[in-house]
Amino acid sequence: MRAARYYGKEDIRVEQVSEPSVQPGQIKITPSFVGICGTDLHEYLGGPNFCPVKAHGVTGETIPVTLGHEFSGVVKEIGEGVEGFTVGQPCAIQPTIFCGKCPACNVGARNICHNGGFIGLSGGGGGLSEAVCVNATHVFPLPHGVSLETGALVEPLAVAWHAVSAAPEITKDSTVLVIGGGPIGLAAILCLRGKGVKNIIISEVAAARQRFAKEFGASSIINPVKDDVNKVISEITGGKGVDVAFDCAGVPASVKSACENVRTKGTVVNVAIWEKEVPFNPNWITWKESSYKSVLGYGPEDFKAVIENLGTGSIVPQKMITAKINLDNLVRDGIGALISDKDNHVKILVDMEASRAPRHKSAAL
Fold first, then answer.
1. Which pLDDT does position 355 carry in this prediction?
2. From 3.40.50.720, 2.130.10.10, 3.30.450.40, 3.30.360.10, which CATH number describes the 158-294 domain?
3. What are the Enoyl reductase (ER) domain coordinates in residue numbering (predicted)?
4. CB atoms inside a 10 Å sphere around CB 55
5. H-helix or E-strand containing 41?
């Protein structure tokens, strides 16, 4: 079968590999649509990072590995002992890999497993292939009316849902600040809207991302380069500050802005992955007894919640899809486009259904 394989920095090849055999407790999936993630870009530009150069602690694999961790597909084959699924059933896949033995796993926090990783980055196959075998517990059926294209958005939406759920004090009447209008920031807006929140302020520099944020449900747009963010938020909230601030940007100015603009006893939620240390003054939140917490990834409960909200129409994410491409054009039209024109894209999907026609044996992209 064909698969997109990561060999190292700026080296991704579509080549022939052996199709995996389904094991007991597993389901073989035929991938349909695969989202290209910021993590994929980091691996391409500066990796290997997540992709293992030494044997991964759970999968035992090293590069080359098959890519694709945001994906939907249909059930192709059902392994021994698996019940509740049918061949041809449309599904979304939770790609989390965990050891089940470390201190994090022992307290149920498998999303932060000390030895963890992701299908499509750390071994175990990936969505950018013609077949992948995954544990049945990671396969989530899509309800009627939820397309396979939308199913490929469940993973990034689950990241946002996990973040939004970290602030249980949020109500429909809350005023919320989202800093950063990239894919996860925009997904956070969709999830907040799914929870009924209407007062959503977005702080974002790029005009295209401001437009996306407005379309996705933000009630107020702030440009931190042109506007006095603190003054605008004070005016919007009557001087109180926002109830919850989500930092999806991960830059020095964003953490400062989040902490300065959250209300007394409010909550700042860090969603970003930071590339380097930044200045932080605890007094930003100490004088208000505000809380600062961080989130990472998602759990099965987040996948279930997102899929349920997709099924009811509470979350409508189709506008996140800004392009669909063929597997053979992964680097040029996918990764390349997200690097050179990132502000005008939210999520580029690789259409695996349209990519199944036989091609040449191997090609470096």
1. 81
2. 3.40.50.720
3. 8-350
4. 11
5. helix 38-46
- In whole numbers, what is the pLDDT of the chain averaged over residues? 96
Q: What is the pLDDT of residue 281?
A: 97
User: Do residues 5 and 17 make contact, with C-beta atoms less than 8 angstroms apart?
Assistant: yes
Q: What is the C-alpha to C-alpha distance for residues 185 and 250, in angstroms, rounded to an integer?
A: 11
CA–CA dist 93, 141 (Å, integer)? 9
Is residue 266 within 8 Å of residue 243, measured between CB atoms? yes
Bridge partners, residue 129, by sequence:
3
Q: Where are the domains of the chain?
A: 2-153+317-364, 158-294
Q: How far apart are CA 57 and CA 188, in angstroms?
A: 32
Q: What pTM, to 2 d.p., does this model score?
A: 0.94
Tell me which architecture the domain covering 2-153+317-364 has in CATH: Alpha-Beta Complex (3.90)
Which regions of the chain are under pLDDT 70?
A: 357-365
| Res 358: pLDDT | 56
Pairing of strands 90-93, 139-141: antiparallel
